[in-house]
DNA sequence: TTGCTTATTGGTCGCACACTCAATAGCATC
DNA sequence: GATGCTATTGAGTGTGCGACCAATAAGCAA
């Protein structure tokens, strides 16, 4: 029963192994933080020697950046799908805020704080953070533009509105590592409130309780 | 010329040495980040052996927390003085936003990101962050309450307004390690705009260009 | 089956970190 | 000027990290 330690080598294609490494790194980054994405830790996670991780990522910084990018873009796809099969922009925006205000979003908030801080020391990660920020901005802007086209939203500058919403969201997420428990409801609603104000929507439009808050807009 | 290395011991009182250590740690924390607050680094900063720092702070975590607390509370005193000798609440709030929106505030934003992230792993720091958050909230709430008393501001809930302002401020500060250069003016003004809206002030009241933006409110 | 490519291992090196503790020397006090 | 307290040193421990590299074996192709 040689199940505890792996002596038998398992040889995989570079593409498969690399994907496996990135997935593991993204999972560790989300659950424990980017500081825990080390050659040893990811190697252990996959039952593989640290040198192998080094082989696929000659610089550990690249792996950390890749872990963040992978986790972030996966979350973005889940939160704001690129192609929206069903539902109106208003509904999608409501779903977005419902999830972004929930406790399940805390891991993502933590990851963003983590990445924004670590950006200070790691240029590779800094570039990746900038790239992801652009991706989130673009995805949200697209949704707002579509809402404007359909006369659901009313704003003179969808891009500006997007940034304003994201600033509030960042501000709310900044405290993911501390309290957030005894936070007034008006504060938790701030992102949605901002969106409603800037998009000319009646107050409460984006936080209707009769909407299926937990359901995925595409599923 | 034994000027390069210090072989001569300089013996100070515990209180003086401790204060010296905390000051150096706070400076390093602000300039280079809390991760750089190490026994070696601070010892080198003071021309002293690392063991001495260990003597005053048996756990390095305590020093890191102290460094953050010291830097944060010093900045708070400078930004929102406890006793305001001159100027109205409106003027003080204007000064506050002027400084908080400037580039010189970036180091503070960086420090807060740093501390909020590191809180994830260090309970001692987490407590200190919570303490400082409370202090900032309290100081700003006091200012707003005073403005309400003098009929300069109009809000039903000074505490809630305070939190809303701080959330926006946190959101703006979150990007201190990345771009912030090509940020629309409306975004940079968001904190002041939020305050004006929530306090019933005419738009522009808190960002008047004729106010002495760089002067300290206490002299 | 044989051979070859290369994915994977195992071991090593240097570095930075916190922490411990006996030995030392500055300085106030007498 | 001698004495005692203790602030300060110096040396050492153990851990975890990234990086490097020769040796090995898995699995495909001939």
TrEMBL record, chains A, B:
SUPFAM superfamilies xrefs: Homeodomain-like, Tetracyclin repressor-like, C-terminal domain
Stretches for region Disordered: 177-219
TM helices/strands, residue ranges: none
Residue intervals of the HTH tetR-type domain: 15-75
Protein name: TetR family transcriptional regulator
Portion annotated as DNA-binding: 38-57
Keyword Cell wall biogenesis/degradation: no
Any Pfam family matching the protein: TetR_N
Keywords: DNA-binding, Repressor, Transcription, Transcription regulation
GO MF, any single term: transcription cis-regulatory region binding
Native organism: Streptomyces sp. NBC_00119
Residues forming coiled coils: none
